[in-house]
Amino acid sequence: MAGSHSDPLAHPEVRQGSAMRYIAGFVSTVVLMGAALIVTMRHDLPYQSFVELVGGLAALALFSQATLFYGLDISRAQIWKGVSLILTLPLFIITVGLTVWMFQSLNQRTMVMPTSAAAASQPTLLQ
After folding, report:
1. How far apart are CA 21 and CA 69, in angstroms?
2. How confident is the model at residue 60 (pLDDT cuts 50, 70, 90)?
């Protein structure tokens, strides 16, 4: 078990961060997401290339955030950060996947239209 730190600024993870890393992470994220926004607004690419380009820009933004904000690296001392990220990714993918599925099939599951024979026999509010 790690020893306690009476000074929070002396904690190794706090010392690892710096203003330049946070500024560089913010700038790289804004630039990459801005490029993704420009690509989405133009949208003159074929669908496959469009998805690959926007996905690649999003992956680069996530990578820059992981390295600059989160401090993810391949050193042996920080391996727990990599493990926590790897174990979080499946949960993130499942959450996003289930949300996409839910909203994709929402109209089919909730807006059931009556059949033509049943609709003819049922009075409506306007009749």
Report:
1. 7
2. very high
